[in-house]
Structure formats: C-alpha cells, structure tokens
Amino acid sequence: MRIGILKGSFDPVLVAQLRYAEECVRRLHLDKVIFVLSSSGVNFSASFEERLRMLSSALSGREDYAVLNEDGPMDDAEGIGTVAKGMFPGAEVVFLPDETETDALETEARERIRSGRPVSGIVPSGAQECIYLEGIYYPETEREHLERLRCELDPERFSHTCRVVRQAALYAERFSIDYRKARTAAMLHDCAKCIDKPTLFLLSGESEFIPPILHAPAGAVIARNRYGITDDEVLRAIRLHCTGDAAMDKLCMAVFLADMTESGRDFPAVDEIRDAVWQSLEYGMLTALRYEMRYLKTKGSVVHPATERALTYYRTKEA
Fold first, then answer.
1. Per-domain residue ranges for the chain?
2. Residue (of 121, 179, 185, 143) closest to 50 by Cα position
3. For residue 197, pLDDT beyond 70
4. What is the model's pTM?
5. Any alpha helices (H) in the chain, and if so which ranges?
6. For residue 175, what pLDDT is reported?
C-alpha cells in the first residue's frame, strides 16, 4: 500500500486541495491520501475542532481519503509518519509537496463567508454545510443569532434555515443584492416558525387566521424586538417570504425564492423554479407563484390576498 500525506491548515479546506490530492493519487499511484491538520496559529480563524469538522465533512464518503489527527494538531514530520505507519502497517508513506497557493485562497474563502458571499467552487459542499450550520467565520452578532435560532427551532427547521442562507448568498451574488442583508433576512425568515399558532396570530397583525403564513409577519416582529433588526428592507423580506406581494424588491424576491429552492426542497416543480430564477428574479417569482397557486387551490386552502396581488403583478411583468 502506498499512502500520501497532505498537511495543511485547512482553514477552511478548499476544492483546490481536494483536486490536488486527486492529482497526486493518479500521478503517484497512491492507494490513500491522509490529511493532517497543522497546529493552530495566530492567523487561523477557526478552531482545530471546527477545522476538523469541516475537513471530515468534505471527505465524507471517500474511502481513499482519511484524517490522521482527530485528537489534535500535528506538525512533526517524523511523528506524522510514525502514526501513519501505525495505522497502515507495511505501507509506504509519501509526503506530498504543497504545490497549491492555498493561503490566499483560504483567506479569500474566509472573507467571502464573513461578508455573506457564496463560496461555491471554492469550498467543498460538505465543508460548506458545516460552515453554514455552525456559522464558522460569521461576524459575532450573526453567529449569536444563529446559536439562538438553534435553540428556538427544531433541528429540521434549523437545517432548512441554514440551507436558505446558503441559497440566498448565491442569489445575492447573481443579482447584486446586499450580501449581509440577504444573510440576515434568510437566517431569520423562519425565526417564529416554532411558536404556537394563537401567539403567532396575535403577533402577525393579520386580520384572517391563515396558519401556514402567520410565522412570516410574526417573524418580522420577532426579528425586530428579539434580534434587534431595524433595517426595513430586511424586515419586509422576512414578512413577505411566504405570501409574496406586488412590486417586491430584489432582496424580498431572493429570500422568497431561496426558501422555495434551497437544496433540501424536492417538490415536483422545484427544478423548474430553480431554472427560472437563474433567468431572472421576476421570472422565478412568476413560476413559483403559479405553482403555489395551483398547490393551494388543489388543497382547497385559503389564498392570501398578497399572493393574489403578487401573481397578478408578475404576470404583467412577463407581458
């Protein structure tokens, strides 16, 4: 057996590093690549444990990849070689040269995440999932918001929220929307989801009791009063993320559509809506609203007046 050792900070792990490992497997005829997390330093933004979780998530499902040091950072080459040989007796150990300019890419990835920009194509998908679930590299206030949501939402709803944040970042980049506003609105869009319906109705200010949409207007109230959000554009995006309305701004449309198209959604028309969004936010809204209207009428559900207004409005935009 021939094993390659790839040592790095992985702060975070990069797509480029995994591609380099794959290249080494082919070029050097390796049976396995062992990733080694180097020790923490003053320039590292994530803790060892966070870097380990990101790396492990990125390598999940790859039998030819493994992490050597799950108990702590390692830097000594001799010690690394000894541990590797102990894991794989009789194996030939090859230390892989660092042929990638990773420091600048890692810095860029951290800054993109910190500012709310997406890192697709830069950070592996598994590591991204870990980043969004934990708020790694987020500014302190936004990380505090995320931890509060973790306590207030059920696990499934919390995971959905993190996927919406990730999707909203993609739409924000594509359509030139303020990244931080998109992340805040996406993060808090379901902040009221797990509150009882009578309380939601009181908070919502709605005149008609339509349970599926109450958490949206109530969520805007909670976002202001409990999370300290004062930006009217962010609050409006939270308020309209279920019903939509006429003449929504780009932020409102992005959050509405990110909620419908995040990667965990699998309803029949979701791929059609995803394709429509990339053409334009307006066409995405029209496609999504048409599906929503069909769905609500099929179930015999009450249609909110704002949804009626939204569909009428986006039909005229298509004309």
1. 2-100, 138-263
2. 143
3. yes
4. 0.92
5. 15-28, 48-59, 77-87, 102-115, 125-134, 140-152, 155-174, 179-188, 197-204, 215-225, 232-239, 250-261, 270-279, 281-299, 305-318
6. 98
The class that CATH gives domain 2-100 is: alpha beta
The confidence band for 41, taking pLDDT boundaries of 50, 70 and 90, is low
Rounded CA separation 319/114 (Å): 40
How many of the other CB atoms lie within 10 Å of CB of 32? Answer: 19
For residue 38, count CB atoms less than 10 angstroms from its CB and return exposed for 0-12, middle for 13-18, buried for 19 or more. Answer: middle
pLDDT at 40 over 70: no
Question: Do the Cβ atoms of 116 and 169 come closer than 8 Å?
Answer: yes
- CATH number of the domain located at residue range(s) 138-263 in this protein: 1.10.3210.10
Indicate the DSSP class of residue 92: E
Residue 16: count of CB within 10 angstroms of its CB: 17
Q: Spell out a b/e string for 160-192, using b for 16 or more CB atoms within 10 Å of the CB, else e.
A: bbbbbbbbbbbbbbebebbbbbbbbbbbbbbbb
pLDDT digits (tens, 9 = 90+) for 239-289: 999 999 999 999 999 999 999 999 999 999 999 999 999 999 999 999 999
| Residue whose pair of structure tokens reads 């194996």 in the numeric block | 91
Q: Which residues pair with 8 in a beta bridge?
A: 37
- What is the tens place of the pLDDT at every residue in 68-105? 877 777 777 888 888 888 888 888 999 998 765 788 89
Q: CA 261 to CA 42: how far, in whole Å? A: 39
